[in-house]
Amino acid sequence: MIKKSIKSLLKSIAEIGKRSPKQSDELIAQIKQTTMEYTTLGRTGLRVSVMGLGGGGYSKIGQNTGKSRVESIALVRTALDFGINLFDTAEGYNTEEIIGKAIKEIKREDAVLSTKKKMLSQDRLITGKELVRGVEKSLRKLQTDYVDIYNLHGVTIDEYDYVLTELVPVLFKMRDAGKIRFIGITEAFTKEPNHKMLRRAVKDDCWDTIMVGFNILNQSARELVLPQATAKNIGVLSMFAVRRALSSEKNLRKAILKLQQMGAAELEILNAEKPLDFLFKEGGAKNITDAAYRFCRHQPGVDVVLFGTGNVEHLAANVASLLRPPLPDLDLLKLKELFANVDDFTGNEKL
Ligand SMILES: NC(=O)c1ccc[n+]([C@@H]2O[C@H](COP(=O)([O-])OP(=O)(O)OC[C@H]3O[C@@H](n4cnc5c(N)ncnc54)[C@H](OP(=O)(O)O)[C@@H]3O)[C@@H](O)[C@H]2O)c1
């Protein structure tokens, strides 16, 4: 069901101002044909689209890739037109205002907003007072009275005890005051590709949601994090589905080479030129990003796949991928076997 009117979409496209009439027609047709899927985000009970638009990563909804603010706002509105209702941002991304502005045209309760605060300020851990100021600042930038999910951002295992004793009680108070509805924690995947912090966090009762790195190349969360999160009914948002390594076949080739050099023996059998070509066939994946997003989308235990883009064609392609069926069983089995031992690579590495 299209949640937003086509008029609003046309406005979005007009704002983008760079699309040919044919491209605009194609986008409108795709939105009309799209039936977004929704799920319940664990114990939060929130009804959310199975995919969420991320305001961070390399693109920052286009703010890092040369797009104007108007274009980024239009991209968020086009995501709304597709039926996406979950938007993730952070104090550090500089995209809170863009998302806040974009959702002004819908009822507040029709969007689920997630934002976050980093733990370090000038090389020391933030205080409870700074956390309170952070929440207030995010509310102002998002132009809202409450945040649906407030996350502690990129927490490492070394910071975790402090977070539990000093910051979680502050978040409880903010929740009691109605400023935040649910409390989340996100991992520093590039520092802890084997989920050191999250493996511990999923044992505690205070987290309503977690954000975990998971992709074809590093599937370690499947055993280390997801079953424990499911058992506690913690809502799970996955990140890093594509990142750098899975954003093109060229990057994939370089990433596989790097993994081979790191000693991943199972990967020696792969053809250097077309390492995962078994995925691309009739009934299989359309391309590497299609494979990457579908792989995460259908992983049991993952509720929402976050993706980042500043490019409206990528937005449309990703929505289509995330609504396609799972990859064929045999392909999934092969991917599982090939990358079974990788827990030291994230897809973010320089290639
Ligand atoms: N610790 C944390 O809390 C944390 C860390 C990382 C991410 N996150 C959250 O998770 C979100 C998603 O993470 P991510 O940024 O790593 O997302 P991702 O979807 O794995 O990767 C996004 C990258 O892939 C490109 N891309 C997207 N769709 C594409 C397509 N169809 N074809 C080719 N390239 C494509 C994007 O560039 P284009 O603009 O060119 O499309 C961007 O550079 C972030 O925005 C953020 O909200 C949280």
What do these coordinates show?
By secondary structure, the protein is an alpha/beta fold. 40% of the residues lie in helices and 16% in strands. The protein has 13 helices and twelve strands. The strands form three sheets. The protein has an eight-stranded parallel β-barrel, surrounded by four helices. A two-stranded antiparallel ribbon has the order 1-2. Helix 11 crosses helix 12. The longest helix has 20 residues, at 157-176. The mean pLDDT is 95. The structure holds NADP nicotinamide-adenine-dinucleotide phosphate (NAP). NADP nicotinamide-adenine-dinucleotide phosphate is lined by residues 54-59, 65, 88, 116, 153-154, 186, 211, 239-243, 247, 289, 306-311, 314, 317-318.
Oligomer: single chain
- Can you summarize the main beta sheet? 8 strands, parallel, barrel
Helix and strand succession?
HHEEEHEHEEEHEHEHEHHEHHEHH
Could you report the average pLDDT, rounded to the nearest whole number?
95
Number of strands: 12
Q: How large is the share of residues in beta strands?
A: 15-25%
- Look at the helices and sheets and give the structural class: alpha/beta
Percentage of residues in helical conformation: 25-40%
Summarize the structure.
The protein has 351 residues and is α/β, with parallel strands linked by helices. It contains 13 helices and 12 strands.
Question: What attributes characterize this protein structure?
Answer:
single chain; alpha/beta; about 40% helix; binds NADP nicotinamide-adenine-dinucleotide phosphate
Topology (SSEs and partners):
Elements: H1 6-16, H2 21-33, E1 38-40, E2 47-49, E3 51-54, H3 69-81, E4 86-88, H4 96-102, E5 112-118, E6 120-121, E7 124-125, H5 128-142, E8 147-155, H6 157-176, E9 180-187, H7 196-201, E10 209-213, H8 221-224, H9 226-231, E11 235-239, H10 249-261, H11 288-297, E12 304-308, H12 312-322, H13 329-338
Parallel strand pairs: 3-4, 3-12, 4-5, 5-8, 8-9, 9-10, 10-11, 11-12
Antiparallel strand pairs: 1-2, 6-7
Bound molecules: NADP nicotinamide-adenine-dinucleotide phosphate (NAP).
